[in-house]
Design a protein that fits this description.
The complex is a heterodimer of chains A (about 110) and B (about 110).
Chain A: E1 5-7, E2 10-13, E3 19-24, E4 31-37, E5 44-50, E6 53-57, E7 65-68, E8 75-79, E9 88-95, E10 104-105, E11 109-113
Parallel strand pairs in A: 2-11
Antiparallel strand pairs in A: 1-3, 3-8, 4-5, 4-9, 5-6, 7-8, 9-10, 9-11
Chain B: E1 3-6, E2 11-14, E3 19-21, E4 23-26, E5 32-38, E6 44-50, E7 56-59, E8 62-65, E9 75-77, E10 86-93, E11 103-104, E12 108-113
Parallel strand pairs in B: 2-12
Antiparallel strand pairs in B: 1-4, 3-9, 5-6, 5-10, 7-8, 8-9, 10-11, 10-12
The chains are: A mainly beta (about 110), B mainly beta (about 110).
Amino acid sequence: DTGVSQDPRHKITKRGQNVTFRCDPISEHNRLYWYRQTLGQGPEFLTYFQNEAQLEKSRLLSDRFSAERPKGSFSTLEIQRTEQGDSAMYLCASSPRTETYEQYFGPGTRLTVT
Amino acid sequence: GNSVTQMEGPVTLSEEAFLTINCTYTATGYPSLFWYVQYPGEGLQLLLKATKADDKGSNKGFEATYRKETTSFHLEKGSVQVSDSAVYFCALSPFEGGSEKLVFGKGTKLTVNP
């Protein structure tokens, strides 16, 4: 069990550029979640996959954000035309097939938009 | 809606002191409740959980009891150590309409001095 991994760990980009983050969940976890955390705040839910199906999206997720989970394994989160307000830590979590749906978090990708 | 309110931090204690971090929640259904911990430079880790009223979650000397009548899930530890210094997040999972997202509080930073 290698845990949830995220790549890259840090990303600095200029406003207006597109960025893509990757998340590899714990193997055999069929649920995958994306959250965003800004300084001094708790994580905020963005979107959720069960296998390859995207089952829920937050109203926080503007049209510039898109997430995919092809084949129900790794997931990508893309932000188009980045804005300074997108600067945050983007967290990925995965969850096994258990009743309590515990979520296991990755280390996060810190995005800085200049 | 669903929300979590935690006591404001930061909290500074001496080693072996008693710790309480208050957490109250608002939920329309019967949520599961969690405490997550974020150590400096690390990702979020599940500390403990409770899935129904009167359940007590416990781990590493920390405890929290799911109190439906007061909508609370306060975190306690009888004797804190320097190694407990971290940010603690209370969270709920509402399970509304199949939603499995976590709703987090803002976090409480704990510093334990030797």
